[in-house]
Amino acid sequence: MANPSNKKTPPKRNAASSANPLSAWWNQQSSAIHFSMERLWFNPVSTWITLAAIAIALSLPTSLHLLLKNMQTLTADKREVPTITLFLKPAVVEQQAKDRAELLSELPEIDNVRVVTREEALADFRKITGFAQTLETLDENPLPHVLILTPRLSLLGDLEMDVAGLSKKLKAYPEVDDVQIDVEWVQRLRGILRIAERIVLVVSVLLGLTVLLVVGNTIRLDIENRKEEIRVTQLIGATNAYIRRPFIYNGVWLGLFGGVLSLVIVHVALLFLVEPVTKLASLYGSTFILSGIDVVMTLKILLASSVLGVIGSWLAVGRYLWQSDDAIK
Fold first, then answer.
1. How far is CA 145 from CA 139, 208, 285, in A?
2. Contacts of residue 150, Cβ cutoff 8 Å, sequence gap at least 6
3. Domain count across the chain
4. What residues in the chain have per-residue pLDDT under 70?
5. Which residue, of 147, 182, 217, is where some domain finishes?
6. Distance (Å, whole) CA 116 – CA 286
7. Looking at residue 6, what is its pLDDT?
8. Does the residue 1 lie in any domain?
9. How much is the pLDDT for 137?
């Protein structure tokens, strides 16, 4: 019978080897996060200068995009029904104008027709211009009869195409001398906005590159200050991923906090603009309200700023590690 004391006891498992891999990964990440946050505020003056530079670079394209978005609401808003004004020929009498208005009101595309006689137009012209005495010297009323048509938007798909097609149809009537559409300014504004979209895109790309340079230069200076520490960790077997990790998180914080600061700048600027914009809109009889940054746009800005921070720090650390590997070889 074998002596129990001679039996070999099974070796105890190492706690690190028996640990959950996910838990080990999280411990590494949390350690890097904690260290990067401490390192971020190691020099608060330099950090705030960097965050201010990032915030200013991000607030400009955000403001331009917000301005463009508000201007697009002026052309996309179909609550205000466009009108078509028909200027009749001078030879057309009032009864002919009323007959033509009655026929036009029966068209399926037309919702309402209003007749403005030349006498009514002359009276309105006197009130608006103040040339009452000058008009008294004229032998006859020079203004024509006018028909103001309101199209039925429920039957219109593309507002620009259908109203333009309707105006061409109306211009073919023998009594009509000219047709004026009040949505022409919308078409011009949309053309301007298409150009503005390209400009905002170019500015956003250029300022995004600026954020990359700011973050990359900040990380590069931090690497220079910790060069000896990094060299020691490499000598004891630290991997490139281990060295890179805290710098990546540092870039995340720079981009994220810079994005938050840029949102604050944009919101403060909006507070200064709300009152004058509202007054200007009221002068034109509009209920236009300046819209701010919604939740989706906020998340996009924060995500974009964080990604820029990651890319900038990754490039800076990658360049140092590439040079370091070449030096070792």
1. 17, 58, 26
2. 81, 83, 84, 110, 111, 112, 113, 114
3. 2
4. 1-19, 74-82, 128-139, 153-164, 182-187, 284-286, 324-329
5. 182
6. 24
7. 46
8. no
9. 66
- Phi, psi at residue 103, to the nearest 5°? -70, -40
Report yes or no on 17 lying in a domain. Answer: no
Name the amino acid, one letter, at 4: P
Q: What pLDDT was estimated at residue 304? A: 93
User: What is the Cα–Cα distance from 300 to 6, expressed in whole angstroms?
Assistant: 68
311 CB-side CA count, 13 A: 12
> Token digits for 100?
């033509």
Give the pLDDT of residue 2.
43
Q: Give residue 12's pLDDT.
A: 45
pLDDT of residue 263: 94
Cα distances from 148 to residues 1, 153, 286, in angstroms, run: 117, 15, 20
Asked which of 161, 182, 203 is the last residue of a domain, the reply is 182
The reply to whether 114 falls in a domain is: yes
- Angle, helices 227-235/295-328, rounded to nearest 10 degrees: 70
What pLDDT score was predicted for residue 8?
43
pTM over cut 0.85: no
Tokens (6 digits) for 275: 């009152």
User: CA-CA distance, 98 to 115, in Å (whole number)?
Assistant: 7
- Position 185 scores a pLDDT of 65
- The answer to whether residues 213 and 301 belong to one domain is yes
CB neighbour class for 190 (10 Å; exposed up to 12, middle 13-18, buried from 19):
middle
Residues 295 and 199 in one domain: yes
